[in-house]
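B., you asked whether I could sanity-check this one before it goes into the benchmark set. Here's the sequence:
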Amino acid sequence: MKYQGGKHRIAKDILQIIFAERKPGQWFVEPFCGGCDVTAKVDGPRIAGDSRRALIVFWRQIAEGWQPELVKSKRAYDALKAGGGELAQQAWAAVGASYSGKWFGGFVGYGKHRNGRDYQKEAFAAATRKKESLADVTFYALSYDLLPLPPQSVIYCDPPYAGTTDYGAAFDSESFYDWCRDKAKEGHTVFVSEYSAPADFVCVWEKPVTSSLNGHRAHKPAVEKLFKVM
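And here's what the prediction gave me:
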């Protein structure tokens, strides 16, 4: 399932770097779990958090075997956007039934498009096949700075990127960077995905990628980077 800023295409690449430093039994914590593309590919004890409660409810219920109902009309989409229905179904409309997984970024439609693709069904398949891999994840609907952290965890952060399209609310990157530094000083191993970062964050991996905010805009080149907080 596409999610704005999701890492489904590069999750395996960045996890090779992270796994090289993860010890047996060490907790893996993802404070900005989003589409769960990374957490779903990790074994062992895991915590996934996000400040959007509806999204966390969605993933909890997916892990329990729940399946979303496809959104069949713009009217139904707008009703869910306005707060109608269950939280998990709201999250499905916000991501699975929206262009490129941008939170309520426009109704993607129902059924096949002219190009022969059915975007909702593709998102449905991608989300529901994560059931088994998320079954033992501990989920929290909390901001990154309120998330409970087991001692000496491996923390992977994929925050809203500085200077890019926002996620519905302003994000204080500088406060986030300070939090990362504090966690590293406490003994956690902290990795951050970003296009750029402060000088004391060491780039340990990078790869050119393409991205777009919706299906009608041209793709934009960028270099995804993984930083380690020293």
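One thing to flag: The CA atoms of residues 112 and 118 lie 4 Å apart. Otherwise nothing jumped out at me.
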